[in-house]
């Protein structure tokens, strides 16, 4: 009896952990996303703009372009990036793994739908959502659910859709919503069916971690997550900042409404990295400069969805095959949408 009595407190569930996680999610998203976007929606409605294109005034020198873009980009996303690492680590130590496995641990389509729904309130760009997706994979959430969560954050961002409606027109927002939903569910389902779960690296062992104090364990998890994602992220952003001189050579000129430009913009959109909703002023600026509707739609769905930095950030969370499926799936989706627009016009 004495042994049972002494072991009971050790097995008692710590309700403060999931409650703390929920509090961090709500407070963090309110500060970083929800409250700023609430005010930005009124600005978009009144001015039909949310700022100038991040591609504007690119330097001719690749090195200068890299530094300029990196400074602008990181000033725009650093709060969300910190929150992403924080949530990606806390989900591994505060949420019971059996909860996550029951919710998103199987290979059924329902897990993909749940991952999609959980991605909506995050409103993060693809890079800031990547650490959270990596944390979910470390907790052995299914590949389809984690992929859906990652893609839904930028593609189905409710705030971005509202900004898009006020700035570009509600028909653009409707197209983005329908195309984005199809992309998220189709690509995540394809990843789930094509990538065996055992091909993903096994998560960090939890048994030994449970014997450690919470703070020690959390800091260890957060350091591993940071080291596996952020250094590659910073290097890739610098390289793409330099490459924008070649990726978008006609950012201030006319881009014709042709199949060639649809394919080129779809591919460039998959490679480049932008902050949340930055695709709106980019497309707005380029359309005012003469870009056709078809390449504009291709950019509108590929620019936010994936990027080289975000794919690199997930290289330990997903096998290479899953990331290739995501990259090719997004590129083909942009091309198909652009070709459909060409056919209609």
UniProtKB/TrEMBL annotation:
Transmembrane segments: 13-32, 72-95, 115-136, 148-167, 173-191, 225-247, 259-278, 323-344
GO CC annotation terms, alphabetical: plasma membrane
Membrane topology, record value: Multi-pass membrane protein
Organism domain of life: Bacteria
Signal peptide: none
Main location as per UniProt: membrane
Subcellular location: Cell membrane
InterPro entries reported for this sequence: DUF318 (IPR005524)
Cited Pfam families: ArsP_1 (PF03773)
Keywords tagged on the record: Cell membrane, Membrane, Transmembrane, Transmembrane helix
Family classification: Belongs to the UPF0718 family.
PANTHER family: UPF0718 PROTEIN YRAQ
Protein known as: Permease
Organism: Pantoea rodasii
